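Please study the protein below:
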Amino acid sequence: MMVQYSQIVKAPLSLVWEHFLYKINHPENFVPGVSNVELLERNDAYVIRAMDLTFPDNNTSRVVEKISCAPFWVKFLILEHPTFEGYVENLAEPISGNETKITFSIHWKNKKTGASFDHQEIAKNAVLKTIAYILEGQ
């Protein structure tokens, strides 16, 4: 099971893709609660990124991800997380010359219980925050 949210943004695919790539280096502009971002490794195949993530209960944890991408798709694989294992995918699909569908899918499982992550509002808020940031810069 996964959590997924999609929405169409009035922005061309090229602009959305530019922001997806920017998000790898600057997740604090797109993901609530992110601080202290460090790029630990970068090569042609992937980026290893560490960041502090403050959760709604005000606990902060260090999260490390391996990020890979191909045109219009980015995958964030969890390497270190206090609770979850799995990955998040960001996908951009052209609708028209100036409209793009953004879909975020969260494929997380609780490491202790094996339960699937089921907080739909997290995916929705991430998409909406990304769209707001994209539209701010237009």
